[in-house]
Amino acid sequence: MACIVEMMILHDASGYRHLGEMLTSEGLLAYFKNGPSREPIYPFIISISMHVGNLLSISYQTVQIFIQIFFLFLTQLCALFLLKRLKIQPFLLALIILYIGTSSSLVNSAFRLYSEVVTYPFVLAAIYFGSLCWQFVQDSRVSQQKIIGTTFLLSLSFVILTLTRAIFELIIPIFFLPFILLALWYLIKKESRRLKNVVILLLVAITTFYIPTTLYKLVNKKYNGYFTIGNTTSATAFYGNANRRTRKLTPKKILAAFISIPRWSFCAHILDPQECSLWSFVQSDHIGFAQADVLRKQLPEDQINKMLTKLSIKSILKRPFQYILLMEFQSLKMLFWEYPAMQYSSYPNTIRKFYDNKLYLYWSIIIPPLLTFCALCFAIIFIWKNKKNLISSQDSPDDALTIMFFILILIIPYTTTFALVSILDRYSFPIVPLYLILIAFMLQKTFKKSLH
What we know:
The chain is an all-alpha fold. The protein contains 22 helices and two strands. The chain has one domain.
């Protein structure tokens, strides 16, 4: 299939291709000097594909597709480890692994030039190692060397995630917050052995994550003046969304915002497209970039993002409840992760007809979002009912409890951070494997007897 699918280079994909070409022909120094560019790992992978393609006299796209299929396979393997730790029954386990390899959203992401596919296995790895770390620091039988090694692998997963999608830099402090609270708990209880374990874990996590990411940002600062990992368009997007969410809205525009949750095109089919246009990312980008152009006439370039952020906060404070309501609408977009249309790639007719089937379309906008919502609620209730068991007085907490806990610790801030600014369809893809694990866990617990 990799040999018969062709990537369509549109929108962000053209930027990724350009960066890959720059790394291939001019090297890493040009990448920094022409920055701040996008996060480096995905363009670096593209440059590898270009080198291999030149060596074999084939298109770099073919090589890139094979690499991305490998990441999808790696995702299935990581999901398998987690599902086995959850003791999911073989039928459900096989179903989830199969679905990861056939989901239109996940498969399509492997056949287009966007970075999300690289994050899938490392998100699962972060959950796996995070849950192990939580158990290890509470188990007196586990050596400190084992804690250090597992923490290193956890931090390494987050370094790769952050250098692929910079949003994970904002999530890692929240991910480690439970460990900080656990350290305080052990300090109060005067459990010196376990306190020492948690302190060691936090020191290893801080050094192994922040040293490489800070060094990368310092290099960016040296060559292009920005202490950042990715590009600097987030402030523009923040302003565009803050502006449209805090305008004086009619009930019809609020209804349009609600109907746009699955997709903007869904709203345009039901209501007047003009009413829905405000909730298209195209409109918010237009608002943000227009304001940035105005500020360029008044301020130095390095002051524009600060001013955009300041203006965004000022807008939010005028209508905070309206902003929060529309932010909640935006966060619900993460539930509509299954998308039947195979976009940004050219597929054979037989494959396209399968995924474009109307039955598949109706199924994808009803069943996956409903199952995902129920699975999230089920996991929250499960954690709440068993919250006292998260801290064990003897050895270590249950596998299922720790895995569910850290899945939520990752999903909730990931969704909230994007919802503060804007959510595109593809932003949900990195957490889709986590959704599927939650769904498997819910189904097993709900239909336990019939699955045996």
